[in-house]
Amino acid sequence: MSGSVETARLMDSVYRNQRYFYDLTRKYYLLGRDRLISDMQPPRGGKVLELGCGTGRNLVLAAQAYPEARFYGLDISRNMLETAEKNIKKAGVEDRVSLIEGDAADPFATEGLGVPAFDRVFYSYTLSMIPVWREALAAGSGCLAEEGRIHVVDFGQQERLPVWFRKALFKWLKSFHVSPRRELKSELEALAKRKGACLEYRQLYRGYADYAVLTKVQN
């Protein structure tokens, strides 16, 4: 059994029931998502890809915020995509949002969308859930348009928060197969160097979240 198939089955099992109340609960601790959407600012007619789109919550808000852009979402969980489809249709943005099932770490996973390059690629609390997260970052950078941007928000290492809070949070996250990536900043720095890109990185909420924007520089 391939790794992507194993991951798909795991995510389906984790979110088979959670998807129905996922957005109601996650809004209290997936901090920085709305900031990412606000900072995205795609160009008119731009194409935006979310790798690991889950319930479609971010895609709906982004499509409402940027009515002149086109949005695409990829997720490995069929269960999550079914919920995303319903949420997108309910919001009335299905004419500008397309979904596809696939592995975010697969550089060819978005080929079925028929889009050669994306102006924005974003990861919202997904890299901490993807076992081969470095490959997922590389895949996103590989389909980025010239002068495009990658936006990332995810769990940080909680450095400036109480130790008891960090231990409790990490233990709880582990039960959902979530692993905050200690090497995220260094991996983004290495990716920026390989791509000749500029990286803006900061910690939000006393280290609760890592927030980054990688801008591809035109050759």
TrEMBL record:
**CDD domains reported in the protein's UniProt record:** AdoMet_MTases
GO molecular-function term, one example from the UniProt record: methyltransferase activity
Name of the protein: Class I SAM-dependent methyltransferase
Query: What organism is the protein native to?
Result: Roseibium porphyridii
Q: What Gene3D superfamilies has UniProt attached to this entry? A: Vaccinia Virus protein VP39
List, alphabetically, the InterPro entries matched. Methyltranfer_dom (IPR025714), SAM-dependent_MTases_sf (IPR029063)
Positions of the Methyltransferase domain? 45-167
A Pfam family this chain is assigned to: Methyltransf_31
Indicate whether Lipid biosynthesis appears among the record's keywords: no
One Gene Ontology term from the biological process aspect of the record:
methylation
Superkingdom, taxonomy of origin:
Bacteria
What keywords are annotated for this sequence in UniProt?
Answer: Methyltransferase, Transferase
